[in-house]
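Troubleshooting: if your tokenizer reports a length mismatch, compare your output against this known-good record of 120 residues.
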Amino acid sequence: MSDSEISETEDGDLVPAVIDFTKMRDESGEVSESYFLTFSLALRWLMPALFKGGSMPISIRGTKPQLDNFANVMSKEKRYLESWKSNGLDSPHTYKNKAKLGLAISQFERTTGVKWPFKQ
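Known-good structure output:
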């Protein structure tokens, strides 16, 4: 993510961002605040593209388990939000998807050491 941050050119084109889970930690082993901020902003841009089927100029790097867990959380996030939109928050189907999302987030956080930036 230090390679670039999410921004727009003067023409309105998006500048590519790089999310690299293997480089998010600083010398002390803590997740760098600037990496976390860029990660959060990248997700803010990526989530609408996930629903619309579009693409975003974001490169995501990491170990296979990190990438697998990231993809799993994004998939579960999409299912939860779709269920919420279709069935409402009080639906058993929505609760089930929320629980699955919570498990996926826990696994992602354990694998990457990065806190998922969205509240459930």
